[in-house]
Specification:
By secondary structure, this protein is mostly helical. 48% of the residues lie in helices and 10% in strands. A two-stranded parallel sheet has the order 1-2.
């Protein structure tokens, strides 16, 4: 939280996404209370070339909360890259 508060204003997810050129996959927890799902859709609007997967019944840590689904999404994406 301290790091997020001290970061430069231009180091937000949307501004960073505009500068990155490597292949990316966004995975978001449907019930994320820390970073709302609306941020995911905003990022998706900025970079339509980045696939986004929302994992149902998970919060901020879908890799822990729904590990099997998370791993399946990541492995499928990797196999296509």
């Amino acid at each position: 939280s301290i790091g997020m508060g001290l970061r430069p204003k231009n180091a937000s997810a949307p501004s960073l996404l505009e500068r990155l050129s490597c292949p990316m996959l966004v995975i978001w927890g449907e019930k994320d209370l820390f970073v709302p799902l609306q941020i995911c859709w905003h990022c998706q609007h900025i970079r339509k070339d980045i696939p986004a997967t929302v994992i149902a019944e998970s919060g901020h840590c879908p890799h822990d909360e729904r590990a099997e689904i998370f791993n399946s999404v990541v492995l499928n994406w990797l196999m296509n890259h």
